[in-house]
Write a structure and sequence with these properties.
The chain is of the alpha/beta class and 333 residues long. The protein is built from 13 helices and eleven strands. The protein is 47% helix and 15% strand. The strands form four sheets. It has a five-stranded parallel beta sheet. A hairpin with a 5-residue loop joins β3 and β4. The longest helix has 31 residues. The protein is globular.
């Protein structure tokens, strides 16, 4: 009887996975009609959202980072809001504030007015331009899915995702994100320049009389079903061992061997959790029922890169975090 129960559970997971994978594929195709030449960025962003996490998009201006977030909001059917981070932005501008109301009878009471963080998809544009105090206002929201204002707890809508953008240029007048905040992001996604063919398509598609509009392809309920399903997908022992080996070797200490001497500090257990969820989500995005070691290797850099730092001597030799991760991957793959 127990074996039959397991088989039935597996059948349910398979059927659910097929339905959800079809919905996700439709959403991905819908995004592809608006965002060109950024297939890897779109895929990694969808993997982040399916994993229930937040992403940090890094790229120069004009690479459609804002457009991607707007398109995701419409395509996934999420209530999306945008905050432009500036040096004078206050925490209350993000979370909301209590105001004093006076009724017709003269009775006074406080009323909470929600801030833009009360959205299902929040775009934090140029997050490193705001002061550390304002940046940290997002910390509790991102980790705990609720905020506390004047001692009162306010739950955020579900699902809740933050997609933050950061400009790698113009570092003057910016406040680098502290390690604790960076660790809240499941992935750091580099947005590079499109190739020649993609840029040619951009020219024609976006400068004509009519511009293609994003269209809804999913609902928040379907998305949340997909997120629950991601956590139920089986993971083979070889994939688990690859995740553990990779994350543990990215820290200073004996696991990394000679390479570890270049690492000042490395990823904590949250990185292992992020990679475990991300490989499952990527498998589901591809219509597969279980992740492979290749998924671990492909997602290693965006999951680990912002959770590591090199020693001064390694940086002086011209080594980069991406190079070190590449060396660690070669030991597994």
């Amino acid at each position: 009887m127990a074996a039959e129960g397991v088989e039935k559970l597996e059948d349910v997971i398979v059927r659910s996975a097929e339905q959800v994978a079809a919905s996700i594929k439709t959403a991905k195709e819908a995004i592809g009609t608006i965002i060109f030449g950024q297939e890897q960025v779109v895929e990694n962003t969808l993997v982040t959202i399916l994993s229930g996490g937040h992403a940090l998009l890094i790229g120069v201006p004009g690479l459609a980072k804002t457009k991607l977030v707007e398109t995701l909001g419409i395509t996934l059917g999420l209530d999306a809001k945008r905050i432009q981070f500036t040096p004078d932005l206050m925490p209350s501008d993000i979370l909301g504030a209590e105001v004093l109301d006076e009724s017709t009878t003269g009775k006074r009471s406080f009323r909470f007015i929600t801030g833009p963080v009360f959205a299902q998809l929040l775009m934090a544009d140029e997050i490193n331009r705001a002061s550390p105090r304002t940046q940290s206002a997002l910390l509790q929201a991102m980790q705990e899915q609720h905020v506390t204002v004047a001692g009162a707890r306010h739950d955020l809508p579900k699902p809740f995702h933050v997609l933050a953008t950061q400009n790698p240029l113009e570092q003057e007048g910016t406040y680098p994100l502290p390690e604790a905040q960076l660790d809240r992001f499941l992935m750091e996604i580099d947005v590079d320049y499109p190739d020649r063919d993609a840029e040619r398509r951009i020219l024609f598609e976006t400068t004509g009389a009519e511009e293609t509009q994003a269209r809804p392809a999913m609902t928040p309920d379907v998305l949340m079903t997909a997120q629950r399903l991601v956590r139920r997908l089986p993971v083979g022992d070889s994939v688990v061992e690859a995740i553990l080996s990779l994350v543990r070797s990215a820290r200073p200490g004996p696991d990394g061997g000679e390479i570890a001497k270049a690492i000042a500090w490395g990823p904590g257990p949250r990185a292992s959790q992020a990679l475990m969820l991300a490989v499952r989500a990527r498998a589901l995005l591809d219509g597969r029922l279980a992740p492979s070691v290749d998924d671990v290797l492909d997602l290693a850099e965006p999951v680990l890169k912002h959770r590591m730092a090199l020693t001064f001597s390694a940086r002086a030799e011209g080594r980069t975090v991406a190079d070190v991760i590449g060396q660690l991957k070669s030991r597994i793959g």
